[in-house]
Amino acid sequence: MKRILKRYICSLMVLPAVLATQSCTKNFDTLNIDPNASTTPTPALIFTKAQYDGTANMANLLLGTMQYTTSYNDVAGFGSKYILAQAQASAGVFSTAYTNEINELVEVLKAVGDAPDKVNLKAEARIWRVYCFSRLTDLYGDIPYSQAAQGYNQSIYKPAYDAQKDIYADLLKELDQAAQSLDAAKATFGSADLIYGGNTAKWKKFAYSLMLRCAMRMTKVDIAQAQTWATKAIAGGVIMDDADIAKVAYVGAGQNININPLALNLWNSDYIAVNGSSNIEGGKYQDVFINYLKANKDPRLGVVSIVYNGGNADTTSAIQKGMPATFNAKPADFVTYSEPNPKTVLLFASPRLVYTAAESYFLLAEASLRGWYSASSAQSLYENGVTAALRQWSIIAGSAGTISTAQINSYMNAHAFNNSGTTEQKLEQIYTQFWVGLFPDAQETFANYRRTGYPALTPNNYPGNATGGKIFRRMLYPISEQNLNPESYNAAVARQGPDEFLTRMWWDKQ
């Protein structure tokens, strides 16, 4: 045994020398270069990826919070039940954003720089960066912004959190400058731009539409600035036609990146069995959403919802039924509850709508009520918003989503604008239609719900919830921030308030 050990130890002593001899070759530089890597970034390719990532990074749990969906499974049902044990499920968007779309956009902007011939590339990257950051701050409040994703470039590994008030001021400034710098005579990202194919006129409308969204977000915290920026956005020109809707198209096959991310997530997490019974996470539509659609004879019911009847997907309105968010076990009649339609909501090849004409019209209706927009009445803007929201399902799903003109007119007649109501009653009508009209963009309806209080949802006081039976106001930061970036995290908490679900961010005031 001693002789064996002696030989083994000697061989270990010799091995490094042998390896060193073998590794030292005259082709050292060539052998240590990855032939598939580039030392020069290609902005167009990175921008494409940033668009995919920014569109895919959604807080899908908010579908439950906005009472569109629910689950009898406590883990999957966090969004509709606010289970304390699943609180960190809310941190996912934060963690994903900085390693993907935020980091990618920093690299795009660094690569294009201030070159005069790349002014459109810079502008479009700035506008998309505003979209990504605005969605992020609207979920968490104060977040890393001015120092974000600068570890590689500036060795900032513990970025400070910016106050949301300051973030919003810079987002609006970025949109203003980017929109004005767009130049139709200069180069664009072309086909690498998944949203508009480089069309600068449409990018300008998108920029001013995001400006309108951000401006209206500030109505309860800084009404003067809200009016200033909303007026500027309206003057610049916002999205009001279906042809200008900001959307990312998907081919629906091949790698996952080519599939509508919401459809793919819902499909894989719940509905892949296609039988209404073997739903992996126990998900169904929530009764609040389905009851609303049925009570209002909404033609979207048969577009978005099905019940598996004898193994077949049935869109008949009479049999649609939403599941309560109070269930903690699979009900015996689980198969009889409604779930997303595979031909529309779960369609892999459907586009992901980023900003719609319907949203613009609803926000403009409020602006009209406030006296900030005089070109159209609140009534006509409301009507345009409702009809645009009904039409857009044909954009999402083609013939399977098409709602006829007769159906649209019938629905509109039954939901005429309440001209004789108070301003508050009018706002409730506008933003209840906003809630049903922007589905399935739960993240935007969540933000608007916190600002306006509409629709008037009843919270779910489920046993073991983290909020005392209240709908939460923000998401929680990742635990990793407490461990890896404690100084910045603690400074943000000291300024904004406890890292808790009910802490209100800057624009979310009573």
What would you say the CATH architecture of the domain at 44-218 and 229-236 and 464-496 is?
Alpha Horseshoe
> Would you give the CATH topology of the domain at 44-218 and 229-236 and 464-496?
Serine Threonine Protein Phosphatase 5, Tetratricopeptide repeat
Which regions contain 5 or more consecutive residues with pLDDT less than 50? 1-24
Report the major sheet.
3 strands, antiparallel
Order of helices and strands: HHHHEHHHEHEHHHEHEHHEEEEHHHHHHH
Structural shape: globular
The class by helix and strand makeup works out as mainly alpha
Fraction of residues in β-strands: 5-15%
- What is the number of beta strands? 9
Radius of gyration from the alpha-carbon trace, in angstroms: 26 Å
Instruction: Name the average pLDDT.
Output: 93
| Total DSSP helices | 21
Oligomer: single chain
Helix content: 40-55%
**Main CATH class of the domain at 44-218 and 229-236 and 464-496:** Mainly Alpha
Strand ordering within the main sheet: 7-6-8
